[in-house]
Every structure is written in structure tokens, then in C-alpha cells.
Amino acid sequence: MTVNAELTSVICFRIGSIFSKVCCRIAHIFLAISLLSSSALTAAISSSDGKGQIWSDDGKVIGYAELIPGGERVKQDGPFAGFETKVVVADGLVHDGAGEVIGRVTEGDPKALMGRSVDDDGDILDKAGNVIGKAERWEPEKKERHINPMSGHKVNKEGEVRDENGNLLGKLTEGDLRTVVGFEVDDNGYVVDNDGNRVGACTLIENLQEDEGPSEEELAAMRAEEENREIARKMCGILQQTLEKMEPILKQITEVSSTLTVIVSSLR
């Protein structure tokens, strides 16, 4: 049998196939001694020699491999291929280098696996490179974010928010108009200053309740208040008229009093 260097000391295996050290599928396992199943054979494999013979750990030939032509070889990308950093974090999630969720733990204790690296195939490894857990590709469902139609538009001097065509979108419902004029509305409908601090809030025009007018109780209170004001006006009028009528009499009394004072003084 011809010796082939590509099959010498190959140790990266998958069921029914032999992979190179860079996990490129290079050979088929086509014969297993003692009728071993592919899964049992994979578990028993230690290495293959240059003749394509597959040896077990106890030194027995347990199968043969047939080399796949170079043009037909396909490198097997694992589910996490393409992510430079893959680390197990809290709640059994796997984060990439940017902190985005890219997977979750499927085998092993998530708490014990925190901080461990995940390889391209989803194996979670210890410092010695031993597989101590498994992870699968998974991403949480992304909820569609609702952006307020007033976002990016400014509050004007009337406390209104209008679009670029002048259409009324909403009105200021929280905050001091004097301090928020000219500030923009954010995606959530809040008015923010130049530093991003919330200084007010606006409500879409369609969400503003129409003015339904005062209630019956309010109307009754308004009528009673108006009646009291009318009574007060009338009382003030009567008092003024009374004073005007009494003014000549009071003047006469004052004159008589002055005259009597003069007479009494002369008699003394």
C-alpha cells in the first residue's frame, strides 16, 4: 500500500470521515474491522498512518481510510466560525468580542463555564484544551424598535413640534417652555438638551385628548361663583349710593356742629 503523508498522524476526526488538523475533510472511513459502527470507530480512533490504516489506542488496526481528491475537499466551518472571540458569560450565554449574544450553553454547568472560551465547533474548552461543555449558535429575538415620529424635530416658541413641511406632529406636555425651546425630541418623545439630558416631554397630536369642556359640577361651581360676584357688585353699588345720599346730610351736620362750637365759645 502506498504511503501518503497526508494520512500520517491525523487525529482530528468526525463520524465516518477523517479531517486534517485544520478540520478540512480529507478522507472517508470505508472499512471498520470487527464491524464497528462509525460512532464507535470515531470514539476509538487515535491516529492513522501513512497507509491509511486506522489504529486504536491499544495498537490494533480497526479500519481503513480512503483519501478524498484535493479538488473535492471542503473545509468544514463550525457554527461559531468567523467570530474571533467567543466567551461564556452570565446566564449561559455566549458573547462575541463586541458583547453581542451569539450562542448559548447546551451542555455543562453555565455557572462553572463562565469565562471559558468556545471554539468554532461550539466546544467549550478548559485551559488544557479539554472539552468541558457545548454551545450552540443562538441569538435572542430582536424586537422591532418604535421610533417616535417627532424624533429629531425641535420644540418651537409655541410649544409645538412640526416636521420639515410645517405639519403639526405634537406639543410640549412636560417641561418649561422657556427653557426647552429649540431643543430636539428623541426617539422616545422626550425633549433633550445638548448633553442628552431630559428636560421635557412631548405628546403626539393624535394622542392629545380633545377638550370636552367643563363638567356639570364645574359649570355649577362657575355659576355659583358668578352669582356671588354679582351679589358683591350689587352690594357695593347700594353702599356707594347710600354714601352719596348721606353726604349732604353729613355736610349739614358738620356745618351745624361748627356753628354750635362758635356760639358756645362766644358765651364763655
Task: Walk me through the structure.
The protein is α+β, with helices and mostly antiparallel strands and 268 residues long. The protein has 3 domains: 68 residues, no CATH class; 51 residues, no CATH class; 79 residues, no CATH class. 25% of the residues lie in helices and 28% in strands. It has 4 helices and 17 strands. The strands form 3 sheets. A 6-stranded antiparallel sheet has the order 1-2-3-6-5-4. Strands 7-8-9-12-11-10 form a 6-stranded antiparallel sheet, with no helix packed on it. It is rod-shaped and about 160 Å long.
Discrete helix count: 4
Biggest sheet overview: 6 strands, antiparallel
Order of helices and strands: EEEHEEEEEEHEEEEEHEEEH
Our count of domains comes out at 3
User: Which overall shape is indicated by the principal axes computed on the Cα atoms?
Assistant: rod-shaped
Instruction: Output the strand order for the largest sheet.
Output: 1-2-3-6-5-4
Mean pLDDT: 78
Low-confidence stretches: 1-16, 19-48
Beta-strand segment tally: 17
Euclidean distance between termini CA atoms: 167 Å
Strand residues, percent:
25-35%
Helix/strand-derived category reads alpha+beta
The helical percent reads 25-40%
Q: What Rg, in angstroms, do the CA atoms define?
A: 47 Å
